[in-house]
TrEMBL record:
UniProt keywords, alphabetically: Amino-acid biosynthesis, Aromatic amino acid biosynthesis, Lyase, Tryptophan biosynthesis
Pathway the protein takes part in: Amino-acid biosynthesis; L-tryptophan biosynthesis; L-tryptophan from chorismate: step 5/5
Cellular compartments per GO CC: cytosol
Annotated protein name in UniProt: Tryptophan synthase alpha chain
CDD domains attached to this UniProt entry: Tryptophan_synthase_alpha
Keyword field contains Aminoacyl-tRNA synthetase: no
Family per similarity comment: Belongs to the TrpA family.
Catalyzed chemical reaction(s): (1S,2R)-1-C-(indol-3-yl)glycerol 3-phosphate + L-serine = D-glyceraldehyde 3-phosphate + L-tryptophan + H2O
UniProt enzyme class: lyase
The protein's role, per its UniProt record: The alpha subunit is responsible for the aldol cleavage of indoleglycerol phosphate to indole and glyceraldehyde 3-phosphate.
Length: 278
C-alpha cells in the first residue's frame, strides 16, 4: 500500500527533491538521508533521464552529473533498497525510462519493481493525462500513487482529465517555465489553488521555493505541502564544485531542510480562512 497519504496526516508536508546519484552514488545516499533528518515528510527521488525537458539549468546539471556517475534504472532501484529512511518515496522521472524497463514494453514491469523496493508513487512530467491509462492501471494494480503536475494555465477539460487520474497529491506548478529557485513567490499560486479547491486531494506547490519564508507564504496561502528541488540541488552542486566532503554537504542539506520545514509550520499559524478552499 502506498504510504503517500501519511505525509499529509499531521499538516502540510515538506517534500524535497534530489537527483539520485548526484554527484555519486554513496554521497547521494547521505544527502537523501540528511533530508529526512531535516524534517522531510516525503522525498521525491529523481531518476535521471538524458532529456529532462521540464527542468531548469540547476537540475539539468544534476542529471548530467548523475548519468556520468553511472546512474541507471537498475542502480536507482538498488539505491532505494539501500536507503535508510522511513518517509514515503516518490520517483520523479520520464516516461521513456518507465516504458522501456524490463522484458516487456509498457509501464507494468517498472511499477512492479518500484513497488517491490519501496517506491510509493510517481511523477512523470512528460506524460500527458490523455496517454496515462496504462501507467494508471499499473499503479492501481500495485497500489502506488500517480502524481500529475498542474500548470497555472491548466484549465477546463484538460484539468478535469488530470484530476480524474491523480492520486496521492497534485503537484501545483507555482509559475510558468522550468524548475529553478527564485527570489520571490509567484502570485499565480493562490489562483491555482482556487481552481483545484473542488478536488479532495492534497495540493503541494513547487517551482521556485527557496527559503523558509517562501514556504511559510505558500502554506499560509492554503497549500497542503511545498516541493523544493533546485535550492537543495544548488547545495549539492556547490559542495561538489568546492571539493567539500559528503558529510559537510549533508549537514548543509539537513540545515536547509529544517529551515524549509520550519517555514511550513509557521505558514499554518499564519493562515487566514479562505471561503473557496473550505
Amino acid at each position: 500500500m502506498s504510504r503517500v497519504p501519511e505525509a499529509f496526516e499531521d499538516g502540510p508536508a515538506f517534500i524535497p527533491y534530489l537527483a539520485v546519484g548526484d554527484p555519486d552514488y554513496e554521497s547521494s545516499l547521505e544527502y537523501v538521508e540528511a533530508l529526512e533528518r531535516g524534517g522531510a515528510d516525503l522525498i521525491e527521488l529523481g531518476l535521471p533521464f538524458s532529456e529532462p525537458i521540464a527542468e531548469g539549468p540547476t537540475i539539468q546539471s544534476a542529471v548530467v552529473r548523475s548519468l556520468e556517475g553511472g546512474m541507471t534504472p537498475t542502480r536507482f532501484f538498488e539505491f532505494v533498497e539501500e536507503l535508510d529512511v522511513d518517509v514515503p518515496l516518490v520517483c520523479m522521472t520520464y516516461y521513456n525510462l518507465i516504458y522501456q524497463y524490463g522484458d516487456e514494453p509498457g509501464p507494468r514491469p517498472f511499477v512492479e519493481k518500484a513497488a517491490e523496493v519501496g517506491i510509493d508513487g510517481f511523477v512523470v512530467p512528460d506524460l500527458p493525462a490523455e496517454e496515462a491509462g496504462p501507467l494508471r492501471e499499473a499503479c492501481d494494480e500495485f497500489d502506488r500513487d500517480l502524481v500529475f503536475i498542474v500548470a497555472p494555465t491548466t484549465r477546463g477539460e484538460r484539468l478535469k482529465r488530470i484530476m480524474d487520474q491523480v492520486s496521492g497529491y497534485v503537484y501545483v506548478q507555482a509559475r510558468l517555465g522550468v524548475t529553478g529557485a527564485q527570489d520571490d513567490v509567484s502570485d499565480q499560486t493562490g489562483q491555482s489553488l482556487d481552481r483545484l479547491a473542488q478536488w479532495d486531494v492534497p495540493k503541494a506547490v513547487g517551482f521556485g521555493i527557496k527559503t523558509g519564508e517562501h514556504a511559510a507564504n505558500i502554506v499560509a496561502g492554503g497549500a497542503d505541502g511545498i516541493i523544493v528541488g533546485s535550492a537543495l540541488v544548488d547545495i549539492v552542486a556547490e559542495g561538489h564544485e568546492n571539493g567539500d566532503s559528503a558529510a559537510e554537504v549533508a549537514d548543509r542539506l539537513e540545515a536547509k531542510a529544517r529551515e524549509l520545514k520550519d517555514g511550513t509550520l509557521r505558514g499554518v499559524e499564519q493562515r487566514v480562512p479562505h471561503p473557496e478552499r473550505q
